[in-house]
Write a structure and sequence with these properties.
Elements (H helix, E strand, L loop, with lengths): L3 H10 L4 E5 L2 E4 H17 L7 E5 L4 H12 L3 E4 L6 H11 L3 E4 L4 H7 L8 E4 L8 E2 H7 L14 E6 L9 E5 H11 L10 E4 L6 H13 L2 E4 L5 H10 L4 E4 L1 H9 L13 E5 L5 H10 L4 E8 L4 E6 L11 H10 L5 E2 L4 E5 L12 E6 L6 E2 L3 H7 E2 L2 E10 L5 E6 L4 E3 L2 E3 L1 H9 L4 E11 L3 E10 L7 H11 L8 E4 L13 H8 L5
Parallel strand pairs: 1-11, 3-4, 3-5, 5-6, 6-7, 10-11, 10-12, 12-13, 13-14, 26-27
Antiparallel strand pairs: 1-2, 8-9, 9-19, 14-15, 15-16, 17-18, 18-21, 20-21, 21-22, 23-24, 25-26
Helix pairs in contact: 1-2, 1-8, 2-3, 2-6, 10-11
């Protein structure tokens, strides 16, 4: 299914329903379709051909959604750029994807002007807000363009988006995702628009991220109103969710923690909020338990995936977040499952394999691999890197984990993060969970650094709570009491914060670089 059909359904069934709320802007599904048609007509007049790229650099806004559908209607490839990228990173993203058209928000105009001479592929620079010398203006384009319906010709297997990875192990790679990368998931997991059901979805995750794109397309297909937050702010989120009566939200663990910890949390009525989906980074058990306690009416969903899988491949559903049972043994099992990523979805095949590609036993750690219609087509212009992760139809995710006897998957970290010490394989996530349970610990990252005797030495970088009296001896002793001796950290380092990507995932490569020459 071509993704443009996700918009056509609510446009036909609920044309006057509000599709987008962004600041003072209110757009119906019909208006959203008209604006995307106008922009698509401009793209055609600008000689955009099928397969050409159209890129955008801006925080979350309605124009991203309008230009996404316009791009899809002319069979071009949409490239949402990470607005948090630095100058040289932006230069790489644009020159690697070689867009013909570049749409840019006001705050990034100066940055792009400083790079213009090096951007050889761009024929049209479009300012989304202000009038700028040497730039076309977005609103003027819409005002002067025809609204004639544009029907795409590409089928579901053609590339629809290039979404760039975070680049934690080198330069960012463009992940090629097809229309089917999204329709496979959405048609299997999301109910289509219903004129009798009117829901709203608060969108906070950046639209340059796969989780943001999936949330947006799912909401459009379901006929839900998208309440857009340009960038996450906990207080603003609380105000927006209450004011607009949001029913659903998608967020990452860091966002959820900031909301729960905000001093004004209890001042806001969130009773209309019924479902919170979380993912994009590992969810600490302490945070989700706190959320279940403070939001007892809420249904929680853990959605696990990555850019290369077009987001969700496994899910821990709401029932597994209900921590109630008459049996102490069953309650213990439920508590354990809360740390899992659930089970594979029905449109994807998942297995866990060893270094030779063979299935591992239940309870044995291996690499998570996935197979299905919605996997990426490969990395843009990187055949070698593509062949390293796509093997015989299977995507090798780089995530390590294991199945329990009931089919739930538990993560053990990234393959590159596993610590190899004295012949033993140590999953940092296991050590982190223990340390994070210590009163006074706000956050922690466990890494391995080179050691001439044991291969690697275990270091714990701990962020203490403001009023904490926790010290390194207490942490090491606690780990000694709760873990095998070879798993306890040999050194604890205290920091005010941990380096993270925009969605709160700790950048352990930066920590390893920083502490690789550490001497105890």
């Amino acid at each position: 299914m071509n993704t443009t059909e996700f918009l056509l359904l609510p446009k036909e069934i609920t044309p006057d329903r509000t599709a987008i709320i962004y600041n003072d802007i209110r757009l119906s599904f019909n208006e959203l379709n008209i604006k995307s048609n106008k922009l698509a007509n401009f793209f055609l007049k600008s000689k955009v051909a099928p397969g050409d790229r159209i890129a955008i650099l801006q925080v979350n806004c309605n124009e991203i959604i309008e230009s996404y559908f316009a791009t899809s209607k002319v069979d071009a490839i949409y490239v949402p750029l990470n607005f948090r990228s630095k100058k040289q990173e932006i230069l790489h993203l644009i020159n690697d994807s070689s867009p013909k058209i570049l749409l840019v928000g006001k705050r990034y105009i100066g940055l792009i002007n400083s790079l213009k001479k090096e951007l050889k592929s761009v024929t049209h620079f479009i300012s989304l807000e202000s009038e700028e010398d040497g730039w076309l203006n977005y609103n003027s384009i819409l005002k002067n363009s025809e609204s004639q319906t544009i029907n795409p010709k590409h089928d579901e297997s053609d590339t629809n988006l290039l979404i760039y990875t975070a680049g934690t192990t080198g330069k960012s790679k463009g992940v090629m995702l097809s229309h089917n990368s999204f329709s496979s998931f959405i048609l299997n997991q999301v109910d289509p628009v219903d004129p009798e059901i009117n829901e709203s979805n608060i969108l906070t995750v950046p639209l340059f991220h796969i989780a943001g794109i999936q949330s947006m397309l799912s909401a459009i297909y379901a006929g839900r109103t998208l309440i857009i937050q340009s960038q996450f702010d906990a207080k603003e989120w609380l105000v927006l969710a209450e004011k607009e009566n949001a029913n659903r939200a998608m967020m990452v663990p860091t966002m959820l923690k900031m909301i729960l910890d905000h001093p004004d949390f209890k001042k806001h009525n969130l009773q209309n909020l019924k479902i919170i989906t979380y993912g994009a980074a590992p969810m600490p058990k302490t945070i989700i338990q706190d959320a279940i306690k403070k939001l007892p009416w809420m249904k929680f969903i853990n959605a696990f995936g990555q850019t290369e899988t077009a987001a969700t491949i496994t899910m821990l559903p709401p029932d597994d977040h209900i921590l109630e049972s008459d049996s102490a043994e069953e309650l213990k099992i439920k508590q354990k499952r809360l740390t899992s990523i659930g089970k594979p979805l029905n449109d994807i095949e998942v297995k866990i394999v060893d270094a030779f590609g063979e299935n591992v036993q239940i309870g044995e750690v291996g690499e998570i691999v996935a197979k299905g219609e919605r996997l990426m087509k490969g990395y843009w212009n990187r055949d070698k890197e593509s062949s390293q992760v796509l093997k015989n139809g299977w995507l090798y995710t780089g995530d390590l984990g294991y199945f329990d006897k009931d089919g739930y998957i538990f993560l053990s970290g990234r393959s590159k993060d596993i610590i190899k010490r004295g012949g033993e394989m140590i999953a940092p996530s296991e050590v982190e969970e223990i340390i994070r349970s210590i009163p006074g610990v706000e956050d922690v990252a466990v890494i391995g650094i080179p050691d001439t005797v044991w291969g690697e030495k275990i270091i714990a970088i701990v962020v203490p709570k403001n009023t904490s009296s926790v010290n390194d001896e207490k942490i090491i002793e606690y780990c000694h009491d709760h873990l095998s001796s070879f798993k306890k950290p040999e050194k604890v380092i205290f920091e005010n914060n941990l380096p993270t990507n925009p969605l709160g995932k700790v950048l352990k490569n930066l920590l390893r670089d920083k502490y690789s020459k550490f001497k105890s």
